[in-house]
Design brief:
The chain is mainly alpha-helical. It is built from 6 helices and no strands.
Length: 179
Amino acid sequence: MSTINRTHVAFAAVGAGLIHLALVVGSPPPFAVAFALVGAAELVWGVAAMAAPRLPLPRVAFAGALLPTLLWAAVLLAEVALGTPAAGGAASLPLLPLAAASALGLFCAAVLGVRLRRSAPPAPRPAPGAARYLVGLFAGALVVASITTPALAATEAGRYAHPHGEHSVVVDPHHGDHR
């Protein structure tokens, strides 16, 4: 696998991890625990994939990339089949962040699946030129950021985030309160 493709998969894993960690806030406790564990694992694997010359634990990562999407779909289908979606069930979770994390996870799973299907171990590829690598790195970062940023904004944590430029504190000298 080329360095650029490995980096794209790592970016996607980090993006999915950030979204899953942002979903912890405001989720029912069982989902919050699952999101925290999955998000932390995705972040750790993504950083390790960026740093390593090969994708670490590709079989485990393949299963881990599919697991959140499959569990979300299974819980939704179970709630629909039972006809009684719980008040704190999967239907109460925000759709955009889960769809974005699923898209990033499915991208990781697809790339890892293709990599695992090859019978022979891949021959080492020469490192790309600096310009090609930077363009590929920028393109991957841009795509993942364009998916991850709106998804993060649609989470409960994103709703309470301070907009840029509004972090300063102004004290009213007459009342002593902050604005």
